[in-house]
Design goal:
Two copies of one chain form a homodimer. By secondary structure, chain A is α/β, with parallel strands linked by helices. Helix content of chain A is 48%, strand content 14%. The longest helix of chain A has 31 residues. Chains A and B meet through helix 3, helix 5, helix 6, helix 7 and helix 8 of A and helix 3, helix 5, helix 6, helix 7 and helix 8 of B.
Chain lengths: 256, 256
């Protein structure tokens, strides 16, 4: 199977490496900037381009991993002259219909990717969809080679899955970042001391649902502590507002 | 060393078990309700009471693990008749001065505790403080027997450490709970599919700071996706507000 990667960001980089490691033939990489394109192409031992026109014709599958806005703006140029090929995007938030071609697919590996941090693709839940049964089979073959947990999921449910992932990954990670900021500003305790707590918070979810396992001042509705902590955030009005919103929301979720 | 535990909640339960496992003599448990007191006392093989008057006199150390408000209301009754003893509280958010006695200490194991979920006390960063050098030594001996990472930290810095822990543990966990809520409401994908993403989000922090490792729509400032996701939360106004606040805060933190 002959594959072209359109995009060279975190997801494309990890996907490309995993495709190659599993014996797939990645023929070419496109990226808007020549530098990103060449870095990933070198990793994969293939050619690269930074112009839509020069994207190879005749590949079996084109994987599109662009920022959603870049994809929306350029979808027609990406497909042009390759209308018979199969296009597969990797965005959790975009519906299958976004692809302006006949043979459409979605391959959404739900994970947080960084270019320089290896992840085990086998463990990544991967959600797939396609415009025909035969193309679903094709995508499923690729997906099952790369990952041990593959699910067929429609666009509408996938949108909510992706939104859930934004809360579980990006927003949770931002809570860690705000915690780090507080430590930097007060006392200088290194952020590393938080890791056992964070690890246990994640590990606990394997045994108890996050709602049932909640602890802390808002879960106990200990207004004594909450008021004092709000006052400590007077210099950080955004964090103060986040503190108030999150505490209220914890309290409401625990009582419904 | 003869120890009395005042409190029988999640922290007291885990602390009591660890003290006992390390050979300390827990003589008695106090809890407001007879049931909680008896459950923990049975676990530790000691006596119990639900009245402040009947708390044993003459113990070497009294560990106080009550909800902050319960502690504030009852501090005098707890100490009364035991003025010469050493009292140690376990609350991250309370200062050393809160204890109305001469020999005061703090022993704050920074972890999220559930009664039925065993945690490895050895790995818990534990922050200690005391009103005299000799009592600091005493607390340090206990702490170093229980945990491999013990830090001496003053009350003011500990307050911010605890606030940081609220963000890193309780608020992050609430993001997981909100993600779970979305999955329940849409499509019925089981929450378990989020665990690899959450595990990786936590694991990543051992290599990259949360600020530098942030990904997702707000980090890319992909307003296309963000607007669509906000619209998906129209039925959940509180979650919509949290989405907006968190996204704005992610954007601002990445650019300072």
């Amino acid at each position: 199977m002959n594959i072209v990667l359109i995009g060279a960001g975190n997801l494309a980089t990890n996907l490309g490496k995993s495709l190659k490691a599993n014996g797939f033939d990645v023929a070419q990489v496109y990226s808007r900037t020549e530098e990103s394109a060449s870095v990933l192409a070198k990793l994969l031992g293939c050619s690269y381009t930074n112009s839509f026109e020069n994207i190879a014709k005749g590949a079996d599958v084109y994987f599109v991993s662009l920022k959603d806005s870049a994809f929306a703006e350029n979808a027609k140029d990406i497909v042009k002259g390759r209308e018979e090929a199969m296009f597969v995007h990797t965005a959790g938030s975009m519906s299958l219909d976004t692809l302006p071609c006949k043979r459409r697919g979605v391959f959404y590996p739900m994970q947080t990717f960084s270019k320089n941090k290896e992840v085990d693709f086998k463990a990544i839940p991967t959600f797939i969809e396609a415009s025909s049964d035969s193309d679903l089979k094709l995508i499923e073959n690729v997906a099952k080679t790369l990952s041990n947990s593959v699910y067929v999921l429609g666009s509408e449910d996938r949108k909510y899955l992706h939104l859930s992932a934004v809360f579980c990954c990006n927003f949770a990670n931002h809570c860690f970042a705000l915690g780090e900021k507080l430590l930097k500003e007060h006392g200088g305790v290194p952020f590393e001391v938080m890791l056992p707590l964070i690890d246990e918070t994640a590990r606990k979810l394997h045994a108890i649902s996050p709602r049932d396992g909640q602890t802390g001042p808002a879960a106990r509705w200990d207004t004594n502590v909450m008021d004092k902590q709000m006052a400590m955030l007077d210099e950080n009005p955004d964090m103060k507002e986040i503190y108030a919103m999150m505490s209220k929301s914890i309290h409401e979720l625990s009582s419904f």
